[in-house]
Structure formats: structure tokens, C-alpha cells
Amino acid sequence: MAGTANPSSYYQSGRVTREVQHKEHLFHLYMFQHTENLPNANQKVIARPNPPHDFGLTIAIDWALRDGLGPNAKNVARAQGMALGSSIDGPKWLMCHNIVFTDERFKGSTLRVLGNIEEEDRGVWSIVGGTGEFSYAQGDFTYKYTEKPVNGIYTREVHIRVLCPTFVKLTPPNKVVSRHS
């Protein structure tokens, strides 16, 4: 048939005979949230429908993740995404964001995070993917407040556990010659 592309020209497959190995990454960080009314705010309300319990309230976030609490703590990453008021019955939030690494070691790599805030002081979110060093990531993101929020500043201690598969290099198959070329 004229004009039909040879499937082997755009696709390769190979047999993987080894078990998939995983690399584990463990992080201990601190996440800093500064609400919209502060001079150094790192979040912004983008929709405020005003039903009960902030249902439908949508906030864009760009929270800092650092390697410590003190003034010399190093910026390691940003939590960039959104928080959505997701319950009519009480204050509950759907969190959907990317952890975008900015330090030298993981610069450009990301983790995809999805979860809910149901208890304000602690929780667990899922890591559902990633890019770069964290391709195909799975894991969890646990947090707890280091202290009660003060004047619109929330500080969370964060533990991230990520498993990423490491793939063996595939040997390209022999070129298939089509009889219809």
C-alpha cells in the first residue's frame, strides 16, 4: 500500500530479562507558605465564590522548600500548583502541585504531588510521577506543622520518600526489511 509508513521506523521494542531495580530518594525539608496579604506572599487567590467553608476557593501557590528553618537555610525547590477548597461540609483542600527542584543536584527535575488537607496540622500526599531524575516516581509526601501558623505564615516539616525505577538500556532490534518497499 503506497504511503504507508513502516512501523519499525518509529517504534522499537525489546525484551527486558532483568527485574526492574528501584532507586530510593529520601528528603527532609521545610515548606514555607506566606498568605496573600503579606509583602512576601507566595500564593494568590484566583477564584473566590464565597459558599460555605471556602468550597470552590482556588489559590495558586509557589511555596518555598528549604533544607532547614534558619536564615541560612538553602532554597532547594518550589511547590508550584494550586489548592482548591473541595468540601461543602468543612474546610478541606485538594492540593495539586509540582515540586520543582532548583538546587544544583536535581535542578530541572520535578515530582508530581496530589492529595488532600483534611487535618490542618499534619497529612500525607501522594507522589504520582516526576521528570528528570524522578521519572516514573511513586511515593509519599508527609508533612506536619513545626508550630501553629503565625500572622499568615505556615511552616511545615516535610519528609518525602520517592521510588524511581531504573531501566536497563534496550538493545535495538535488527532492522526489519519490508517486502513492500
Automatic annotation (TrEMBL):
The keyword Amino-acid biosynthesis does not apply. Keywords: Apoplast, Secreted. This is Dirigent protein. Homodimer. It comes from the Eukaryota. Pfam families: Dirigent. It is found in: Secreted, Extracellular space, Apoplast. Dirigent proteins impart stereoselectivity on the phenoxy radical-coupling reaction, yielding optically active lignans from two molecules of coniferyl alcohol in the biosynthesis of lignans, flavonolignans, and alkaloids and thus plays a central role in plant secondary metabolism. The lineage of its organism: Eukaryota, Viridiplantae, Streptophyta, Embryophyta, Tracheophyta. The gene is LOC112271916. Belongs to the plant dirigent protein family. GO terms for biological process: phenylpropanoid biosynthetic process. It comes from Brachypodium distachyon (Purple false brome). GO terms for cellular component: apoplast.
